[in-house]
Amino acid sequence: MPRSHGSEIDTLIQLLAKLPGLGPRSARRSALQLLKKRDSVMVPLANALHDVADSIEICSECGNLDTVNPCHICGDIRRDQTTICVVEDVADLWALDRSETYRGIYQVLGGTLSALDGVGPDDLNVEKLISRATQEDVTEVILALNATVDGQTTSHYLAERLEDAGVKVTALAHGLPVGGELDYLDDGTLAAALRSRGVVT
Amino acid sequence: MPRSHGSEIDTLIQLLAKLPGLGPRSARRSALQLLKKRDSVMVPLANALHDVADSIEICSECGNLDTVNPCHICGDIRRDQTTICVVEDVADLWALDRSETYRGIYQVLGGTLSALDGVGPDDLNVEKLISRATQEDVTEVILALNATVDGQTTSHYLAERLEDAGVKVTALAHGLPVGGELDYLDDGTLAAALRSRGVVT
Lengths: 201, 201
Known about the structure:
Chains A, B: Belongs to the RecR family. By secondary structure, chain A is α/β, with parallel strands linked by helices. Chain A has helices at about 5-15, 25-35, 40-55, 90-100, 125-135, 150-160, 185-195; strands at about 55-60, 65, 80-85, 105-110, 140-145, 170. Chains A and B meet through α1, α2, α3, β2 and α4 of A and α1, α2, α3, β2 and α4 of B.
């Protein structure tokens, strides 16, 4: 097979293609873009990757990924330590935190219960959550799992486990997404929005 | 603004978002994927970027980007040194070379003539092409520029400049793309395909 470039470049393209959203073709385009912007993008990116890879840690409190342990959230004393928000994944934690509505702390579960995939309670950070929830100062646990079957099953399981923890257990509301059009929404969402309708003030 | 992760991770996300095909959201997803696959993807990618950034060079012969100079193509003695294929960009060179049809050498032009953008012949590798084309052993120059207005204008200009170089000047054929459906093709392509029709053997 003929080669138009060195194997180092091939290696780079193959690694870039592993990023979500990049296929072989866009990885090649990315590699070329990087080659052309050697000093402004390529070297800084390599350095940033090294920096983060060297310092990345899983927060021993909540399971967040950060460069410090405890993470920026658990280490922030201005955060409300009485409320724990349970999320499936670090991506969900970041997404919720970007909304800037919630100022409490988090617990990353690490997935959902799934009989099909053989994921049981022991594979998730359930015990960690229970032990944190039973701490004196915690008053509320918000279940912010995905609105999927597995997510909801896990919510029910956690609500049951938290019954004796002496905390209020809540879950995210179901309803219309902001900006959503009724015509395009599924029946389940519409039914949930109707059931949870509120009085207009 | 609250922070759910360290500034090193923000820097990484911002740099990833500069890759073509990745926006802010997919850059965040990519960063998370990298964090989770620290040893299998993140560190190798950082190393690959460093390796390539350290060794990348513009081939002094053809203008290809490679880790060696002259590049793998110009340095390959099995390649046909009598034919030069002119392309606008390194991406085009790689694309043509992947097709494994062409076994000659290349000349990267570095763009196309464009009155609008103020790109004249001096901004492109035209003189380099002329001097290489006038070398004794070169017999053919293939113009493989994009089928855009600028690309075709540049092709005409190059054909004129190469008139006295004593080489055959050819250009890529216009016609149906392989797998293309007539119904979806523009009039220009259909007209070109019709004009250049060949006898079925």
